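Researcher: We're teaching a course module on how sequence relates to structure. For the next exercise, students receive a sequence and then see the predicted structure as tokens, so they can try to spot secondary structure elements on their own. Here is the exercise chain.
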Amino acid sequence: MTYHAYHLHLSQEMVQGVRVALIPGAPERCSEIADFFGESHQIAYNREYRSVISESREGKILVVSSGIGGPSLAIAIEELVRLGIRYFLRVGTCGAIAADLNPVDLVVSEGAVRLDGTSGHYAPLPYPACADTEVTTLIVRACRELGFPYRAGITCSSATFYPGQERYDTFTGYVIRELQGSLDEWRRLGVLNYEMETATLFTMARVFGMRAGAVCAVLVNRLTSEEPDHATYKEAESRVSRAAVQTAKLILKELIW
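Model: And here is the predicted structure for the students to work with:
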């Protein structure tokens, strides 16, 4: 029986032969990413899930937006796996907490701190959230080929944008005691950045036997600023999109037989 994805509004026939999916958070970024790869067109759009298919001489990819956070991403991954997708690459933005990371630098996640909340529904917390080694190696190679500054390391995936990342510019201005001082603690433990989806993706991919990687562009360094300017934002999105597309081409060339 043909599978039809309830939330993504996709069927197996619509994505036949596609094995690689690039996963940005924002629906508006899907077409830009897909256009970097090749000739593209939208095939579905429901809620936060916009799906664009793109084809070049290397093959086909699917670009699907996940929305913000682990719960939304988990729905997309569940349905994409059932549609036949086997390689997943998160294409995101983040706030850096390592002192030597600058805006528009790229962070290649080798693993993630599981503060996302969602991954606990797939594996107990002692289970690690780890990237696929070969996919990660290709992301690093893509960054080098494009000449983009990057660092590889550990990401912290938070279930919330404000208290979980120890932001005090909120309605109450209060962060619960458990999270007070957490930014400095993660920084001292060598964590590079905050975002909200990578731990969910890595955990699910490992549990499902799929392969996943993640690359995020730095919008701000949280040690010095909280607000990215428009030019920085656009350049960061462009760089991470191009790095992800280059990685997808390498995956199609070297990992899929």
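Model: If you want an answer key for the exercise: The chain has one domain: 4-254. The helical segments are 30-37, 70-83, 133-146, 182-188, 198-208, 230-254.
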